[in-house]
Design a protein that fits this description.
Helices cover 8% and strands 25% of the residues. With 361 residues, it is mainly beta. Strand 15 and strand 16 form a beta hairpin. The longest helix is centred in the middle third of the chain and has 19 residues. About 16% of the residues have low confidence. 16% of the residues are buried. The chain has two domains: 157 residues, no CATH class; 142 residues, no CATH class.
């Protein structure tokens, strides 16, 4: 018999999951299913961003609701990833745990990092996620313990994002061998032959015959060869593939390719194209970040965290190539042709190009 209140209470809704089977089975039970069922109104929304180390392939891999843990004072939703290829089974050891107290109000949201199943250590590079809950008091009737979702309902594919192979993971700045430009041509010899003056006399005498022009051109060529032969320019230096760069990079994340820095709280970035330089300095009311405070996770009527309490406060440099993790410990290493000058008294760092030093390998 159909439920008469489904229009009002949305009892048949599966979102944010795909499957409409919410049957629960207690962990350790031999029964394949129980009459117990997870109320759909207990879970309102969810979303996951799979990190750069997750190896997660959209369209092939999935995230599913594994189980629900009910205690006398809280409810925990356990989500895990399911990989399509068995060679990536080692990635199944990470999960997302969202714990809510039973008196948590409707629309509350939790953001968590992926944690290791055995050690409990978090790893944001594996992925991050959020869950918005509905009426938890409807789940209070479930018996205490861990309950498996028999159908392993998957999260809607549109609620999953993957950062795998989406941006530069490392930057190696000015730390590779490069060919040096050739030396400047030698100036004309002061003891050049008298024939070297014939080009100028030829150009002044526009009415001269063709024969005199030909002799002038041949004289110019011989003069040029005689003046530059003693100091021919050396050929460009070809980098040795086994070349060991003299500058050792720190044992940390390296950024390869173009680097884009985003200023954070009171950080000022100035680019001088004339001087080929970048200045990183301090300045009041500069940057896109805000001063760090304890975030207030209040939500609006739709369960979304209010923007005015989401504080991007990850240090002077907010992000490097759109990656915020580790930006507060950013270390700039100068290589051949790159000069880094700290200015403590002015609270600045100057990064500029040194054309002379570019060949001091």
């Amino acid at each position: 018999m159909p439920r008469t209140d489904w229009l009002q209470k949305n009892d048949y809704r599966a979102y944010p999951l795909v499957e409409n089977d919410f049957t629960l089975s207690p962990v350790g039970s031999s029964s394949s299913g129980m009459p117990e069922e997870l109320p759909r109104r207990g879970l309102v929304d969810a979303g996951f961003v799979l990190g750069i180390d997750s190896h997660f392939e959209l369209g092939e891999d999935t995230v599913y609701l594994h189980s629900v843990i009910k205690t006398a004072w809280s409810v925990t939703f356990r989500f895990r990833a399911n990989y399509s290829e068995s060679v990536r089974d080692f990635l199944r050891c990470y999960e997302w745990l969202f714990e809510f107290e039973l008196d948590t109000p409707f629309g509350a949201t939790r953001f968590v990092d992926a944690t290791h199943i055995d050690t409990g250590l978090s790893n944001p590079l594996r992925g991050q996620g959020f869950v918005t809950i509905g009426n938890l008091n409807e789940i209070a009737d479930i018996m205490d313990g861990e309950w498996l979702l028999v159908a392993q309902p998957e999260v809607e594919p549109g609620l999953l994002q993957s950062l795998v192979s989406t941006y530069a993971k490392s930057i190696n700045a000015a730390n590779e061998p490069r060919p040096c430009p050739p030396e400047c041509p030698c100036p004309p010899s002061s003891s050049s032959s008298p024939s070297a003056s014939s080009p100028s006399s030829s150009s002044l005498s526009s009415s001269s015959s063709s024969s005199s022009s030909e002799s002038s051109e041949s004289s110019e060529s011989s003069s040029s060869l005689s003046s530059e032969e003693p100091c021919d320019d050396p050929p460009p230096i070809v980098p040795d593939p086994d070349f060991a760069a003299p500058v050792a990079l720190p044992e940390s994340t390296e950024y390869l390719g173009h680097v884009k820095l985003k200023p954070g709280f009171n950080c000022r970035l100035t680019v001088s194209e004339d001087d080929n330089a970048i200045e990183i300095g301090a300045g009041e009311a500069y940057g896109e970040g805000q001063q760090c405070t304890t975030p207030d996770l209040r939500t609006d009527d739709y369960g979304v965290i209010r923007e005015d309490v989401c504080l991007p406060c990850r240090g002077p440099i907010y992000t490097v190539n759109s990656q915020a993790d580790g930006a507060t410990a950013l270390r700039l290493v100068g290589g051949p042709g790159v000069v880094i000058i700290p200015r403590p008294s002015e609270h600045e760092i100057l990064i500029s190009l040194d054309e002379e030093g570019i060949c001091e390998l």
